[in-house]
Amino acid sequence: MTAISVILAKPDVGKEEQAKERMKHRAKIMSNNGFTTRVAEGFSGPTAGHLAVQAMTEDWTAMGTALTKMAADPEFIEWQQNRRKNPIGHMVRRTGLRTVYGEPQWAEFPVSYYRRYKMPRSNLKKAIELIGEIDSIETMKDHWTISAAVPITGAEMDMFLAAYQFKSLEVMGQCLDEIGTSEQMQDIVTRASELGNILTADVAITVA
């Protein structure tokens, strides 16, 4: 299991680049305090134009340790003060998740395709089995990966997140053409629809 923290923010109009630099700075501070991080920009879907700082640790004990260390970091304290004095956007949500299959590999696969489902937790085992079936597909296997997570905080505790990651947008397009429309994948999608309802699909790309 991997523990994940996601801060999603919407920059004010005209301040997108400033917001991006501020999020990069926060990610750097988090990295210095024990997190593996990335900053991602929404490319398509409901989060298009939004920025996210995504951070992970090996478990929630490590997450708590890293958060405690960061809270006392003078650089982070200064960052927080600057954020309050000079707002350049607003937070959309802050979510904690735990992986239930695989884990993010942001460094190697910078393009993420997130499919978010509303699903009873009683169907979690079957959903994980379907993710395993997708993961067993060998087509272009070195160019993509998949993981899945569920929330531990947030407004939608019945959410299930399937995260596909690709080496590039071109690879994502090829996978959608060659895998997404295949008979095997369509069968999996049909069975997935019996477990829960898809709510959103988003593409995000690493910017730092």
The number of helical elements comes to 6
Query: DSSP strand (E) fraction?
Result: 35-45%
The termini sit apart by 24 Å
The first-level CATH class of the largest domain is given as Alpha Beta
- CATH fold-level topology of the largest domain: Alpha-Beta Plaits
Tally of domains: 2
Task: Count all strands and give the number.
Answer: 8
Binned, the helix content reads 25-40%
Spans of at least 5 consecutive residues with low confidence: none
How does the major sheet shape up?
8 strands, antiparallel, barrel
Mean pLDDT: 97
**CATH architecture label of the largest domain:** 2-Layer Sandwich
Order of helices and strands: EHEEHHEEHEEHHE
Describe the overall structure:
Strands 1-3-2-8-5-7-6-4 form an 8-stranded antiparallel barrel, surrounded by 4 helices. It has 2 domains: 3-97, Alpha-Beta Plaits (2-Layer Sandwich), CATH 3.30.70.100; 99-206, Alpha-Beta Plaits, CATH 3.30.70. It contains 6 helices and 8 strands; from the N terminus they run E-H-E-E-H-H-E-E-H-E-E-H-H-E. By secondary structure, it is α+β, with helices and mostly antiparallel strands. The two termini are 24 Å apart. The longest helix is centred in the N-terminal third of the chain and has 17 residues, at 16-32.
